[in-house]
Write a structure and sequence with these properties.
9 strands, binds zinc ion, alpha+beta, three-stranded antiparallel sheet, 259 residues, 9 helices, 3 domains
Length: 259
C-alpha cells in the first residue's frame, strides 16, 4: 500500500477530517497554530502506528481509536522524534525500549546465555538492560553520553577576565561576595589563563560534605532549570566509562551459549 488513509480524524482541534498521506516521501504537515498539526502527527499517526505494531508482537498497548478517528489504512510501525528532546524525554529511550524489543532481547540473553565466569549467579534479564540498575553504566546512567559545558562556546574571548565571566552570567552581588573570598585574587585574570586547578574549581566547584560550591556549572544548571536557553553552551560527550554503550561493564562477562 503506497498511502496511509485516515477517516474521521477528530481528536482535540481536528474536526472529523479525512486525508490521504503518500508513503516513501518526506511529508510536512503545515497550518496555523492550533489547527491540529501535532494532534494529527503524534496522537493519531504515531500512536496508531505504535499501537498496531505493539499489538502485532503481543503487547497490549494504548487506547482504542474510538475517540481519535474512525478508521485508518496503510500505517506501519512509527517512531516519533519530538521537539525539545533534551528537556522532555528520557534520553535512554530508543526504538528498542519504546517497542519492548529490548526487553525481549534481554529475556533471550538471560535464558539462553551462559555465564563465562563460573562463580557468578544465574543470569537475570536486568544484566542485559541498560535501563536497569543491574545493566546500566553508572557513570552516565545508561545514556552512553553526558552533557558537559562547552567552555570555548561560553567564553570565546581569550582576554575575558574571571570577573567579566561572572558578570556576563549575571551573578548576583551576594554570590559575587562569596566568590570574591575564594577567587578574589584571580578576578582580573583572564579565565583562560587561570591555573588548571583553579579553573576546574571555578567551573565545577568544590565539594564540602557532598555539597557543591557555587560554580559555573551550578549557575548554568540554575538557568536551565528556570527555563533559560543554555543548551548551546553544552556539548554532548561520549561516556568514557562505557564507550557510549550505556551498559555496565560486567555484561562483557557473558556471551550467548553456543548451540
Ligand atoms: Zn557510560
Amino acid at each position: 500500500m503506497e498511502e496511509i488513509k485516515i477517516w474521521g480524524a477528530r481528536i482535540h482541534n481536528l474536526k472529523n477530517i479525512n486525508l490521504t498521506i503518500p508513503k516513501r516521501g518526506l511529508v510536512a504537515i503545515t497550518g496555523i497554530s492550533g489547527s491540529g498539526k501535532s494532534s494529527l502527527a503524534f496522537d493519531i499517526l504515531f500512536e496508531e502506528g505504535k499501537n498496531q505494531y505493539l499489538r502485532s508482537i503481543g503487547i497490549l498497548a494504548g487506547l482504542d481509536n474510538e475517540d481519535r478517528f474512525n478508521t485508518m489504512e496503510g500505517i506501519g510501525p512509527t517512531v516519533a522524534v519530538r521537539q525539545n528532546t533534551i528537556r522532555l524525554s528520557n534520553p535512554r529511550s530508543t526504538v528498542g525500549t519504546k517497542t519492548g524489543i529490548l526487553n525481549q532481547l534481554a529475556l533471550i540473553y538471560a535464558s539462553d546465555g551462559k555465564a563465562l565466569d563460573e562463580n557468578s549467579e544465574h543470569l537475570s534479564p536486568g544484566f542485559f538492560l541498560y535501563t536497569t540498575a543491574d545493566g546500566m553504566c553508572l557513570s552516565c546512567q545508561g545514556r552512553g553520553f553526558y552533557y558537559d559545558i562547552n567552555l570555548k562556546q561560553l567564553i570565546p574571548d581569550k582576554t575575558t577576565s574571571l570577573l567579566e565571566v561572572y558578570k556576563s552570567l549575571q551573578v548576583t552581588d551576594g554570590f559575587l561576595r562569596i566568590l570574591k573570598k575564594k577567587y578574589g585574587m584571580y578576578f582580573e585574570t583572564p579565565f583562560w589563563e587561570l591555573p588548571e586547578d583553579i579553573k576546574g574549581q571555578v567551573v565545577y566547584g568544590t565539594y564540602d560534605n557532598g555539597k557543591q560550591s557555587y560554580c559555573l556549572e551550578r549557575i548554568l544548571r540554575n538557568a536551565y532549570e528556570k527555563g533559560e536557553d543554555v543548551e548551546e553552551v553544552y556539548e554532548e560527550k561520549i561516556c568514557t566509562a562505557c564507550q557510549g554503550r550505556g551498559s555496565a561493564k560486567k555484561r562483557k562477562k557473558y556471551s550467548l551459549a553456543e548451540s
